[in-house]
């Protein structure tokens, strides 16, 4: 009788593996293998739910010894499903949930299995925030190691620009710390250099004083795209760093808090995040509000974590997603016209296009400082 990888793991790791070993025959297998993007339906031979660095090293060693492909799962949010693998081993970090905030040094230690919503909640208690993304269910590991752009990028940089250290398990099972003081080559590589350098089990971040912001969407009719996006093109480069707004093309969701008269209407818009007083925020948004009459101006004062959860319900786990992205240095008139044309053809009300600013503090880092 052929021994399955799950059976072999239970035999070989029984006395040393402190987490959970899950195979295809186990009751919780389908829940354990599910990813954020339901379009990805991979069937690992073994899911090793790790409780700490020793378990991670054991899972890597088992995969290597049995010549099995290995995937690392943090939050499971990766659009392409890179957190799983068919017929191989998944090192699942979801049990690594520790978060420690030091308000005096404005630093945060975060386990490799945490989600950004959990980090936001912990740092907000101390009036702090770590620059992250725009959806709170995103995993810390994937977003950080991929660069990490979001609401705070213009003022405080990318997530990798705020990474101070990382505890890493290497392919041979060694456990090392990477920072500007030790294993500096590894520290450079993991800050946006792609995968396969090791498994980060804990991150150390710099946090910033952020409590409440003026945030939320302003929507204009899709027919006003040419005026609004042309105005945004001129507005953003001269706007102070504490003012961020990413440009969107959406169909208005059919429910609150959106007015019923614009439900399912295709729109262009800006999702704001302004770290300023209400009066300063209104002054900052005024040039865009003058570009064309908005259908809805929904920006208001809110805790920063509330802004990061605003779109969680629109983009829940379990939907089928397909994402594409590119970098552009300019938005010429032709691009504005094409965006208006193609975003009028969005096939579902969850289809969308976003234009994220990557300027301000993100450019304070030298071109050779990170990959």
Number of helices: 11
| Mean pLDDT across every amino acid position | 96
Radius of gyration: 22 Å
CATH fold-level label of the largest domain: Vanillyl-alcohol Oxidase, Chain A, domain 3
Count of domain modules: 3
> What is the string of helix and strand elements?
HEHEHEEEEHEHHEEHEEEHEEHEEHHE
Shape: globular
CATH class (first level) name of the largest domain = Alpha Beta
Q: Based on the coordinates given, report the CATH architecture of the largest domain.
A: 3-Layer(aba) Sandwich
Describe the fold and architecture.
α8 crosses α11. The strands form 4 sheets. Strands 12, 13, 14, 15, 16 and 17 form a 6-stranded antiparallel beta sheet that branches. A 5-stranded antiparallel beta sheet has the order 5-6-10-8-9. The chain has a 4-stranded mixed beta sheet with strand order 1-2-4-3. It is 25% helix and 23% strand. It has 3 domains: 88 residues, Uridine Diphospho-n-acetylenolpyruvylglucosamine Reductase, domain 2 (2-Layer Sandwich), CATH 3.30.43; 111 residues, 2-Layer Sandwich (Uridine Diphospho-n-acetylenolpyruvylglucosamine Reductase, domain 3), CATH 3.30.465.10; 149 residues, Vanillyl-alcohol Oxidase, Chain A, domain 3. The chain has 371 residues and is an alpha+beta fold. It is built from 11 helices and 17 strands. β8 and β9 form a beta hairpin.
């Amino acid at each position: 009788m052929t021994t399955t990888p799950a059976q072999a793991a239970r035999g070989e790791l029984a006395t040393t593996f402190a987490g959970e070993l899950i195979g295809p025959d186990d009751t919780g297998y389908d829940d354990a293998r599910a990813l954020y993007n339901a379009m990805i339906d991979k069937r690992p031979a073994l899911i090793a739910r790790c409780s700490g660095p020793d378990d991670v090293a054991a899972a890597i060693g088992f995969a290597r010894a049995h010549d099995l492909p290995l995937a690392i799962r943090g939050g499971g949010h990766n659009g392409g499903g890179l957190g799983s693998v068919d017929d191989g081993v998944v090192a699942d970090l979801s049990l690594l949930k520790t978060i420690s905030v030091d308000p005096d040094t404005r630093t945060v230690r975060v386990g490799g299995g945490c989600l950004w919503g959990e980090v936001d909640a912990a740092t907000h208690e101390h009036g702090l925030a770590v620059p992250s993304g725009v959806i709170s269910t995103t995993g810390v590991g994937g977003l950080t190691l991929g660069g990490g752009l979001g609401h705070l990028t213009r003022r405080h940089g990318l997530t990798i620009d705020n990474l101070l250290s990382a505890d890493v398990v290497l392919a041979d099972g060694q456990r090392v710390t990477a920072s500007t003081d030790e294993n500096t080559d590894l520290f450079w590589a993991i800050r946006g250099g792609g995968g396969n350098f090791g498994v980060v089990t804990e991150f150390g971040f710099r946090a910033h004083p952020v409590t409440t912001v003026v945030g939320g969407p302003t929507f204009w009719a899709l027919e006003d795209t040419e005026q609004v996006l042309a105005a945004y093109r001129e507005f953003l480069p001269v706007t102070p760093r504490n003012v961020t707004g990413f440009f969107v093309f959406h169909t208005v969701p059919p429910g609150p808090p959106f007015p019923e008269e614009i439900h399912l209407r295709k729109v262009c818009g800006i999702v704001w995040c302004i770290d300023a007083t209400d009066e300063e925020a209104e002054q900052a948004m005024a040039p865009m509000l003058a570009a064309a009459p908005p259908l809805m101006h929904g920006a208001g004062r809110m805790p920063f974590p509330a802004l990061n959860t605003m779109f969680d319900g629109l983009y829940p786990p379990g939907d089928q997603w397909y994402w594409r992205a590119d970098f552009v240095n300019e938005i010429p008139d032709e691009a504005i016209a094409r965006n208006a044309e193609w975003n009028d053809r969005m096939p579902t009300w969850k289809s969308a296009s976003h234009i994220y600013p990557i300027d301000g503090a993100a450019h304070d880092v030298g071109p050779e400082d990170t990959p």
